[in-house]
TrEMBL record:
Its EC number is 1.11.1.5. It comes from Polaribacter marinaquae. This is Cytochrome c peroxidase. It comes from the Bacteria. It is found in: Periplasm.
Length: 352
């Protein structure tokens, strides 16, 4: 008799386990929609093996990105500083955190992050991997100023999130790892690749005479000489995703990459941002010191400052810059604005 009950309860246990396995939802794989120029000129993005893109994971990441639940007092979300309509910036020199404090770096735009093959994020490269990058703003006292234990507790008390995490990751327990995985999935879908210049390269648009000369200035080592750091018609990212000292200061109040690596040779170096969507991302530079594109162009033309780590690409440092004519400056600006992607900032898939 005793043996019979053992077999009977074992059978019930196995049936229960089988039922749970049958009920476990399998997320649907998502194929990233890669622009034609990116496919032609860049290698495909590489995704973490433990965080593949899924429809459910991306949808969850988007919901979290716009949800103020991730901040200490439910007053700010990721989107507070990364506004989709502004190419995921906020147009402020420094952003205000939930406690009223301000940082000392300008908000970086968010797009084409899947092609950052070095996986170093932020102006100083302090974050390795998109999932890791999403961890820090939640706890940073000058940003969302929360702690992950409390955030996880709030999410674990929310039936909607419990179901969404179960669908996306097969887990009923929500923690910081899964939250940042979801946000990273959403961020990898933020692709900007349909500007006027992209269409020009596909023979779908025509540049004006001024825009054409501006592109030539951009590519000419004897004039603008911009392409080494900011891409070209063969690099649709329009950044090298590397770190440079571009002659902003003689003495450094912000060490940039140097503070992360501890190498004095890296002092004053900051990541080259993409020059796509500059119409939406003012002010410019890591500290937002320039409010207009004209100021940026003037800096490279006659405002360079020498320092111990000045980048060798600042070849005309002895002349203070590349010394562009007024016409070349105006044409260069006209070209830069052809990299404005209105479809990107109006894409409903990236809106709340």
């Amino acid at each position: 008799m005793k043996t019979y009950f053992v077999y009977f309860f074992s059978f019930l246990l196995l049936m229960n386990c089988a039922s749970k396995e049958e009920d476990l939802y399998t997320p649907i794989a998502y194929n990233l929609q890669i622009p034609e120029l990116f496919s032609d000129k860049l290698i495909a993005p590489i995704f973490p093996v433990d965080n593949p893109l899924t429809i459910e994971g991306i949808a969850l990441g988007k919901r979290l990105f716009f949800d103020k639940i991730l901040s200490r007092d439910n007053s700010q979300s990721c989107a507070t500083c990364h506004n989709a309509a502004k190419a995921f910036t906020d147009n402020k020199q420094f952003s205000r955190g939930v406690s009223g404090n301000f940082g000392k770096r300008n908000t970086m735009p968010l797009f084409n992050l899947a092609w950052n093959f070095d996986e170093l994020f932020a102006w100083d490269g302090k974050e390795f991997g998109l999932e890791t990058q999403a961890l820090e703003p939640v706890t940073n006292p000058i940003e969302m100023h929360a702690n992950w234990v409390n955030i996880a507790e709030k999410l674990n008390q929310n039936e909607t999130y419990i179901n969404l995490f179960l669908q996306a990751f097969g887990s009923e327990k929500i923690d910081s790892t899964l939250v940042t995985k979801a946000i990273a999935q959403f961020e990898r879908t933020l692709i900007s690749g349909n500007s006027k210049f992209d269409k020009y390269l596909k023979s779908e648009a025509t540049l004006t005479e001024s825009e054409t000369n501006g592109f030539n200035v951009f590519m000419d080592e004897e004039r603008g000489d911009c392409f080494h750091c900011h891409g070209s018609n063969n690099n649709p990212l329009w950044t090298d995703n590397k770190f440079h000292n571009n002659g902003l200061d003689t003495n450094f109040t912000d060490l940039g990459l140097g503070k992360i690596t501890g190498d004095p040779n890296d002092n004053g170096k900051f990541k080259s941002p993409s020059i796509r969507n500059l119409a939406f991302t003012a002010p410019y530079m890591h500290d937002g010191r320039f409010t207009t594109l004209d100021e940026v162009i003037n800096h490279y033309s006659e405002g360079l400052k020498r320092s111990s780590t000045i980048d060798p690409l600042m070849k005309k440092i002895n002349q203070g810059g590349v010394n562009l004519t007024a016409k070349d400056k105006a044409d260069l600006k006209a070209f830069l604005l052809t990299l404005t992607d209105y479809e990107f900032v109006n894409n409903p898939a990236f809106q709340k």
